Amino acid sequence: MSAASHLVPQPDLPGHARSGPLVVLRSQSEQVRAVAWFIGLSLGLVALAAGTTLAAPDSEIVAADVPFVLALGPAVVAVCLAWREGDGSMRRLWRSLGRRPANARWYLVLLLPVLWAFAVVGVAIGLGEPTAGLFDDLLPGAVIVSLVVLLPAFAEELAWRGFATPRLMAAMSPLRVSLVLAIPWIALHLVLHLPGAMNDSAAVWPTVLSVFAYSVLLTWIFVGTGGSVLLAALVHAGLNGVVPIMSGLDAEAAWAVRAVLAAVIAIAVVGLGGFRRVVALSSHTTR
Predict the structure, then answer these.
(1) How many C-beta atoms surround the C-beta of residue 287 within 10 A?
(2) pLDDT grade, residue 251 (50/70/90)?
(3) DSSP tag of 93
(4) Structurally, how many domains does the chain consist of?
(5) What DSSP character marks residue 135?
(6) Does residue 152 sit within a domain?
(7) Which residues face 84 on adjacent strands?
(8) Which has more pLDDT, 61 or 275?
(9) Is residue 2 part of a domain?
(10) Helix axes 205-224, 251-271, angle to 10 degrees
(11) Residue 173 lies in a domain
(12) Domain-embedded: residue 1
């Protein structure tokens, strides 16, 4: 075994209940190289989606399909790279989709999107935003949006958390991983601000701030739950699915407030030692 190789528990992440012994995985450089390939190919999708959007800015079909390509494309890349790796990588990736947290308290994070959405409403009202018709279309809108965002959320989490995060953790801390992966993830979302795209009239800075915050929060959940793509994806879907709660607010104001509050929550998780606790747990249980 080379000096760069790592012993890590499989199929779960370090620091959590494990069903198998420690096994030798690929070297640190190989794992980082796999993530580099993943990011590079995902950015290739960004270039393709951006070119298509700019070539047909008035096409409703392009506007509708590009978000799904950007969500599902990286998952396809991740699956292909995991298949190419061999050594059970595909099996571990698929198992992460159904992995449940060993500590039931982690299910409480499923309340986070709803609490966040109502906090956005409260802050917006406090800032003087009108409240007429605030929750008029809440129930039908919530059901429809939740169903639409479920598949993309699972696809994105399988790729960015399930595939890229564990491999990049061979070289850096979970917090640094979340910040590094946020950069290409933001690039995918910026395509949606191009002319004719779904967010072309929205300000860009809330997207950048939100995606950074989401990356931190979802990585914290993924690592803390022992590699549960399931729980990270459900929270991700919730962050998108609660939009109808805020639909009665001025769109521009809600767009800004939700980004700022997401950043506040992410900063609170980091500041209160959320990442330190999961790293400490890992160190304690793997001695």
Answers:
(1) 5
(2) confident
(3) H
(4) 1
(5) T
(6) yes
(7) none
(8) 275
(9) no
(10) 40
(11) yes
(12) no
Whole-number Å distance between alpha carbons of 79 and 167: 14
23 phi and psi, to 5 degrees? -130, 160
**DSSP state at residue 243:** G
Structure-block tokens of residue 287: 């001695």
Which is more confident, 34 or 146? 34
Whether the Cβ atoms of residue 117 and residue 138 lie closer than 8 Å to each other: no
pLDDT > 70 in the chain, percent: 80
Average pLDDT over residues 174-186: 96
Contact by Cβ (8 Å): 40, 164: no
Distances (CA, A) of 164 to 89, 209, 266, 267: 12, 21, 20, 22
Q: How confident is the model at residue 281 (pLDDT cuts 50, 70, 90)?
A: low
**Alpha-carbon span 22 to 53, nearest angstrom:** 47
Which helix (H) or strand (E) segment holds residue 24: the answer is strand 22-24
271: enclosing H helix or E strand? helix 251-271
Number of helices (H) and strands (E), helices first, in the chain?
11, 2
Cis upstream peptide for 113 (omega within 30°)? no
Query: What is the chain's length?
Result: 287
Residue 115 CB contacts under 8 Å (≥ 6 apart), including other chains? none
Q: Using one digit for the tens of pLDDT, what is the confidence trace for 96-145? A: 999 999 889 999 999 999 899 889 888 888 887 666 555 555 555 555 55
Tokens of 127: 């800032």
- 44-74 pLDDT per residue, tens: 999 999 999 888 887 877 778 888 889 999 9
24 lies in which domain range? 7-285
